[in-house]
Amino acid sequence: LDSQLWHACAGGMVQMPAVNSKVYYFPQGHAEHAQGIVDFGSSSGVLALILCRVTAVKFMADPETDEVFAKIRMTPVRSDEPDYGDDDGMGLGSNGADVQEKPASFAKTLTQSDANNGGGFSVPRYCAETIFPRLDYSADPPVQTVLAKDVHGEVWKFRHIYRGTPRRHLLTTGWSTFVNQKKLVAGDSIVFLRTENGDLCVGIRRAKRGVGVGHESPGWNPPTGNC
Amino acid sequence: LDSQLWHACAGGMVQMPAVNSKVYYFPQGHAEHAQGIVDFGSSSGVLALILCRVTAVKFMADPETDEVFAKIRMTPVRSDEPDYGDDDGMGLGSNGADVQEKPASFAKTLTQSDANNGGGFSVPRYCAETIFPRLDYSADPPVQTVLAKDVHGEVWKFRHIYRGTPRRHLLTTGWSTFVNQKKLVAGDSIVFLRTENGDLCVGIRRAKRGVGVGHESPGWNPPTGNC
DNA sequence: TTGTCGGCCGATCGCCGACAA
DNA sequence: TTGTCGGCGATCGGCCGACAA
Question: pTM for this structure?
Answer without folding.
Answer: 0.69
